[in-house]
Design goal:
4 copies of one chain form a homotetramer.
Chain A lengths: L8 E11 L2 H11 L3 E5 L3 E5 L9 E5 L4 E9 L3 H12 L4 E4 L10 E5 L5 E5 L22 E9 L2 H10 L3 E7 L5 E7 L7 E5 L4 E8 L3 H13 L6 E7 L6 E6 L5 E6 L12 E4 L15 H5 L2 E2 L18 H5 L19 H4 L9
Parallel strand pairs in A: 1-4, 5-8, 9-12, 10-17, 13-16
Antiparallel strand pairs in A: 1-5, 2-3, 3-4, 6-7, 7-8, 9-13, 10-11, 11-12, 13-18, 14-15, 15-16
Organism (chains A, B, C, D): Corynebacterium casei LMG S-19264
InterPro entries (chains A, B, C, D): DHPA_dOase_Mn/Fe (IPR011981), Glyas_Bleomycin-R_OHBP_Dase (IPR029068), Glyas_Fos-R_dOase_dom (IPR004360), GlyoxalaseI/FosfomycinResist (IPR050383), HPCD_C_sf (IPR044904), VOC_core (IPR037523), Xdiol_ring_cleave_dOase_1/2 (IPR000486)
Family (chains A, B, C, D): Belongs to the extradiol ring-cleavage dioxygenase family.
């Protein structure tokens, strides 16, 4: 089945996000986060980051129910759109081709319902717009400069890894345990830690979309501004330093609850023998290098995705062990030093990782 | 009683901290935090920050039990030591004068057991040492440049405010509620937000000692280093942005559990009519501007203090309402927007401020 | 003469700057630098920094000729305005008292023509306005948070030092040579490196007014924005690290050529025995710690000042050696390592400090 | 001739630098800049950056004369070493193959004398070493995290562009004038602004090697440290913001005069239709976005390179117009605003760009 050549994917390019109140979402993405409007009308807003030169990184689309319309990737050549179509047809997936693009600014594209149930899109043709990198008079203190990655929730992570590797992605980091369970995996096309990650859970769902800033203080400035606007409850988790990816991060929730990460300073991964980093699920520095416990909602909440007809894709339950239960749930544990276990932590710290077990 | 002239206090100057394992404490304060050793022997270590020119900002003293030996302030003239002695004698407090100083590097000093039960010291004479401000070859990524403030736990904050104002301090910010309860107050001599703060709770206890860095990234670097050393469990709270003081902060616990804050970027308060900022205890941005809940240990834990004979001062219980109970306890609540209440917060956020109620 | 008690000065408070094109100046100070307009009309604009709570830090006043109207200091009490008046009368200086203030927002004030020829003002009464410290939604990437200091050009620096010490200032740093010449001195009331400095040259003239940012990247952001606006020729010197003061700096020129410094991270100087730092005029790290040569215009250009009738104060020539000539002029030299001299510098570097000699 | 398939080059990987005093160079690269020693002996030191996982990014080699031994690139597969060898043989270039590598840590490699006279190397096999990205206890304030690019001096830039495009590089930015002269061009394999750049001048020479930091303050910290060590004369140019590449930069000179750039925050260039940015040679923000004049030595000085026998490659003179002469030389000019010319600059600024004409 994998004899069919995978398309040559450049990078994650944009996400179509269905929102229930376009004005509220515009306020969040434009007024608070400072994304730039490429164009907009009463039903859609096209947004891009400061260093982007393609038409958009997000399409906000008004709809009756919050959901994700598509995860879109750019490919290297026009022919790679054909290759993508053939690749998914060969997998028996439903595909749709639109020579004029499904959204503004994008030309010939194929959309598919992938083997994990996600709506994926591939395109090459795209309108160029001004790269605002040098336009410092337009920068806010928390300027978002680049779309960095997607993150998807899927019940069977090893299956997802296999599929994505066939599609040409490489795994850079993963969270596993010594019983052979995989909790999450990060995979890339462009030479950063990821273009998308697969997080174990009931899926298909969208965990988050992530934008990069230049420096860490830019991320702190977003928090400060949210406080000033009395919108600090949009902050779900962080800011902090990831173990996985070594990046500095912040997780926000948009007015519909869609999760947006702000992210900076991971590392170059472009060599074919780039060392894969595997983290123990019980290492409490894996998701936050400073050991800050992950809030339970970060594990449990995610956005539903739509099929190509615009209907919610039904969820499949994860049957493997859950990271939440393994680490902060009733039977779980986590450690700061692997040779000492949780008991070695200071007394005032020991309860902290169990706080989720009341959920 | 207050006819006696208060001494002219310059600033908080140093703290004497009794630790149970001098080698472990040295590793924490010197190897991890990068404080500079002015001198040391088998029983004591004298430490200072990069921009300090007086002999020390901390004396670590080996002892059988973790505790605080003294909170020491520098006064403007030698005569102010006399004034301090007279001030406390007039209050009926026990005082001890030592012309040669109670510790190395410090000359004529008076130590007192103050009306709140704290061991306070006042001195003018001190050895000058090299101010390392320009010695960038010695800076670590998380360099501590200045002693910023103390923070004390005392059961009756209004009583403490009154006493400290008599001593010449000015209140800059406070946390109160509409029933007239005061939960905490910040007070200063040097024109920053505080030289010390009074936090409501069973006291007298030492809540924390705080050092300043130049920038926020220096504080993040300390967290990153603790992660790398697999010592992230020394991080108790933060990093974050305070509401009170507007400073960026981090709270650590030393090997004995003494709390150390790292702090940067509060504001100038030196005008006599500097506006006092009062925060509502139910405002969940008061202690963290980003709305991150305060971990319960931060409210409950603090260091015992010693009397002038070296014995633990007995605790007096707080009878006023507790900030922990009012905000994250069984009956408490907190809000992001005062006109909306907790119910307005996103659903996934509502439980978060109650997590402490299982304690 | 100095038996008269000096007024208790709190800090430098504001400067009245006469500009020839109010719209152009507004664009520079408000649109580019982000200072906040407290109030304005067709002839005047009142500006303040983000953390200020008094009415203004700058008054821009429309006039026929670019000049400085006044250097204004805030004193501790209303009575200190009387003290200031008496102090200068005793010195035989011309004074003017205005119970209603000379500008909006300020009450009872005295203006004087001081012994060096500068127009100085002292006031206590002032309107309070909102301190915008927490209003992060209003911060730009290069936000100016505090007025830090003035800098004045005067021919006889030792004379100026003596007068300012009588007025209650303390010298914190100075540039001298081994022949006894003083080139510049820094002096403070608030416990930073300075509220004003005296720079040797033909005077009285205003060298610069300086605002503080929180961090160094804020200063870099101002440069980036000026580049984006194609206004980079407003940058005269820097950014760089000062030797004197240890602060990070940038010098701009406003549309009339008035010099504005942006400055961050000097150190606490509030102790009475704060060590004075004396720099050798030949040390090429004194004005820039990285050894970047000072551009000649920075030495030669400065703004004329007005007397109390609004006329330009005549210049008195400096007769002592000039720092420009001593260090980058025909006979001057400077060194990186005092024991080696200029010859020890790499060949490609040796000419650099002489570039000014063609002027 | 170009029918021969170019090797698939991943990235610039390391440079072999011949130094005359190994101890002095070690002090500069290791003690001052903080590069990590992978291994060393009396004749060679192998150095890498914090995020590198291959054996080294620099080989310092003791020699009688300062020069550059090789510019080395990593290719995607072992077969690409064969491809590189064939590619250069087809060009008629001298090549040498060594199955065991020419230096430690590297396997099968080919070295060539390329059409521009530069010693180039291509390899795939390399020893993996620990990626120190998470080892924050080892970071200095100015930590170098990644080798970013090389920069080469060559007389005929268009010829160099053509050759490098045949080799598979893409131009991202260039400096040209309206008469058709090319002054410099930037070209990349990995998706940053460059893996190497071609600067017009007498060549072949090595202009600089560049390492990346995470943030801008890291670069400032290197300057501060050089000041503290009284080594500020190692700073040749900057820090500043480039126009070309939009990166923040600093140029140092090592003890032999080899130029090292410290660099951070350019942008993603990985799309095949990435917009090429062309700068006018008279735009004085092209090389420094803040308009700071380039020091003449930066244009004139560069390191000689060796042929495969270890002899200096003779220089070929540039005959096209020189950027130095065009912009700061006798007949040159530069502008801040293209529609206004130099005359529009403030008077105090106009002479500044001519300072080089005395050379």
């Amino acid at each position: 089945m994998t004899e069919v050549q995978a398309p040559d994917i450049l990078r994650c390019a944009y996400m179509e996000i269905v929102v229930t109140d376009l004005a509220k979402s515009r306020e969040f993405y434009v007024d608070v986060l400072g994304l730039v409007v490429t164009e907009e009308d009463d039903n859609e807003i096209y947004l891009r980051s400061m260093e982007e030169f393609i038409h958009h990184n997000i399409v906000l689309k008004k709809g009756p129910e919050a959901a994700i319309g598509v995860f879109s990737y750019r490919v290297r050549t026009p022919e790679d759109v054909d290759a993508a179509e053939a690749f998914y047809k060969n997998l028996g997936c439903r595909t749709e081709r639109n020579k004029d693009g499904f959204v503004k600014g994008i030309g010939d594209s194929v959309r598919v319902e992938d083997p994990l149930g996600f709506p994926y899109e591939f395109f090459y043709e795209v309108d160029h717009v001004e790269r605002l990198a040098w336009r410092y008079e337009l920068y806010s203190p928390g300027a978002l400069v680049r779309l960095d990655h997607f993150n998807q929730v899927t019940p069977d992570v090893p299956k997802a890894e296999k599929y994505m590797e066939d599609l040409g992605f490489r795994v850079t980091e993963a969270i596993r345990d010594d019983k052979g369970t995989t909790y999450a995996a990060w995979m890339r096309r462009k030479p950063t830690v990821h273009d998308t990650a697969m997080t174990g859970g009931d899926g298909p769902r969208m965990h988050h979309i992530a934008f990069a800033t230049h420096e860490k203080h830019n991320i702190l400035a977003i928090c400060d501004k949210l406080g000033a606007l009395r919108r600090s409850d949009a902050i779900e988790r962080g800011p902090g330093r990831h173990g996985v990816s070594n990046a500095f991060y912040l997780y926000l929730r948009d007015p519909d609850g869609h999760r947006v990460e702000i992210y900076t300073q991971d590392y170059y991964t472009g060599d074919p023998d780039n060392p894969v980093v595997v983290w123990d699920v019980h290492d409490n520095q894996r998701r936050d290098w400073w050991g800050t416990p992950v809030v339970p909602s970060w594990y449990t909440d995610a956005s539903r995705v739509l099929d190509l007809d615009g209907n919610l894709v039904p969820l499949v339950e994860r049957t493997d062990a859950s990271e939440l239960e393994e680490t902060i749930g009733a039977d779980g544990f986590s450690y700061t030093r692997s040779d000492e276990g949780e008991e070695s932590m200071p007394e005032w710290k020991q309860g902290e990782y169990k706080l989720g077990n009341q959920l």
